[in-house]
Amino acid sequence: MRTVLTFVIGVVFGTGIVLSGMANPAKVINFFDIAGTWDPSLAFVMGGAVITTFLGYRLVLRRPAPVFEAAFDIPSNRKLDMRLIGGAAIFGVGWGIAGFCPGGALPALGTLNSDVITFVAALVAGVLGTRFVLERLAARRHSEEPAT
């Protein structure tokens, strides 16, 4: 049942992304082109998402637990560290250059457009590369720690 619900939620999300035009990189790039062909519609899509999320969290978190889990898994880390800021900056630059965010690119994969495929391949490579580097750094720090 969990897999079916996950699929349905993904289809609803993807449909919303496509219907709002956010799978079209030109629309996204025009949002960032304030001095040129600025298209403010992305702000309305994001505003609607923020309002929906705000209300959804208020409603859902009134429940004692999620339907398919024992407890809610809410992040406890509220620090703004360099990993978060750097990742957000890289995400924003990539979004502005390519016109895709992961949420828009994954539904657009169905178009088999080579730009989308290239973006998703670069996204996967970036995720795997980052994981590799972070694991190597953690292993190096662990090996340099003095024995107690």
Automatic annotation (TrEMBL):
The chain crosses the membrane at residues 41-61, 82-110, 116-134. It comes from the Bacteria. Keywords: Membrane, Transmembrane, Transmembrane helix. The keyword Membrane applies. The keyword Membrane applies. InterPro entries: DUF6691. This is DUF6691 family protein. The lineage of its organism: Bacteria, Pseudomonadati, Pseudomonadota, Alphaproteobacteria, Rhodobacterales.
